């Protein structure tokens, strides 16, 4: 039976979380909102609308959401040609593909942003499919992105492992019924990832690759 290795992208395979922090912070600042960077960091991994609601609250004027999202998209887009893959990211995906895993990405990115992330990873030969923000109604921490990835891979949750870097990833994977693996390269503490559902935690893709034999992806 097929096995699926589902991966978050930002902060898990590509070192972009702090770029998102700075560009969201600047988008909020331009719109007159003072949002601390540490708060933005903890919200990274949510889709744009959910991130704005999480940081500004339900009492905000939602008419400004589209403008905030557009500002962030424009600011972040300046980095598309130089997004850095995390150590071992492409090698890990190719190793899993070679070992018979169906590799699927589950990300809130889409369009040009997703294209830039895939170029950074440089492992398209190993990636079977992508569940992007365009494919789901609800983003993480809802299970829908992971569930859609499983549909694309054609495997049940019992035959899948989800790798991510945020509590939103771990919560989404846990709700979808898959085994969850956390990585620390997105800047979220180990204890937080474990509390949210991570079965085990690694430093980054290179660390997971080096210790693959003893991992849920063995």
TrEMBL record:
Gene3D superfamilies: HAD superfamily/HAD-like, Putative phosphatase, domain 2. One of its GO terms (molecular function) is phosphoglycolate phosphatase activity. GO terms for biological process: DNA repair. Pfam families: Hydrolase (PF00702). Keywords: Hydrolase. It comes from the Bacteria. PANTHER family: BLL8046 PROTEIN, PHOSPHOGLYCOLATE PHOSPHATASE. This is HAD superfamily hydrolase (TIGR01509 family). The lineage of its organism: Bacteria, Bacillati, Actinomycetota, Actinomycetes, Kitasatosporales.
